[in-house]
């Protein structure tokens, strides 16, 4: 049996959103999808689809491309880069002021790993807030 690989950016972002909003246990319970743009169309550079907030503070924004999605981390950039790299997600810094970290989600199968990145970022932020 051959499974279809989900590589549609909009669908990947939808799966990620469902995983974030649908979990009420562990670190993901602290997250919410906010400011969703339901009419967003994928672009080559990525179009903002929604924000990811932790305790009502935006830590990342989700963008959709034709063939992938990416998270643009505004908080916990080092933790996001390290974790994403360690678990096999493509990651790169974004040279802006303040700097950001981009984590690419290139298939539906990578959604779970993207939520692992969010959870690690949350844990690291929790450590610095204590």
Q: How would you sum up this structure, described in words?
A:
The chain is of the alpha+beta class. It has one domain: 2-Layer Sandwich (Gyrase A, domain 2). It is built from three helices and six strands. A six-stranded antiparallel sheet has the order 1-2-3-4-6-5, covered by helices on one side. β3 and β4 form a beta hairpin. α1 packs across α3 and α2 packs antiparallel against α3. The chain is globular, with a radius of gyration of 14 Å.
Q: Supply the CATH class.
A: Alpha Beta
Rg from Cα: 14 Å
Tell me the number of strands.
Answer: 6
Low-pLDDT windows of residues: none
- Structural class, from secondary structure content? alpha+beta
Distance between the termini: 49 Å
Order of helices and strands: HEEEEHEEH
CATH fold category name: Gyrase A, domain 2
Task: Enumerate how many helices there are, as a single number.
Answer: 3
Strand content: 25-35%
Work out the count of structural domains: 1
SSE layout:
Blueprint: H1 9-22, E1 31-34, E2 47-54, E3 57-64, E4 69-73, H2 77-86, E5 91-94, E6 100-105, H3 111-129
Antiparallel strand pairs: 1-2, 2-3, 3-4, 4-6, 5-6
Helix pairs in contact: 1-3, 2-3
Which terms summarize this structure?
130 residues; alpha+beta; Gyrase A, domain 2; 6-stranded antiparallel sheet; 6 strands
Structure at a glance:
Helix content is 33%, strand content 27%. The chain is built from three helices and six strands. The protein has helices at residues 9-22, 77-86, 111-129; strands spanning 31-34, 47-54, 57-64, 69-73, 91-94, 100-105.
């Amino acid at each position: 049996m051959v499974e279809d690989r989900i590589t549609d950016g909009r669908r990947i972002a939808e799966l990620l959103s469902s995983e974030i909003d649908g979990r009420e246990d562990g670190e993901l319970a602290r997250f919410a999808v906010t400011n969703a743009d339901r009419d967003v169309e994928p672009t080559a550079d990525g179009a903002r689809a929604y924000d990811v907030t932790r305790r009502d503070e935006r830590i990342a924004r989700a963008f959709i491309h034709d063939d992938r999605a990416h998270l643009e981390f505004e908080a916990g950039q080092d933790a996001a880069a390290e974790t994403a790299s360690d678990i096999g997600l493509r990651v790169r810094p974004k040279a802006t002021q303040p700097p950001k970290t981009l984590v690419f989600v290139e298939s539906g199968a990578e959604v779970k790993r993207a939520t692992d990145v969010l959870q690690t970022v949350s844990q690291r932020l929790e450590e610095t807030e204590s």
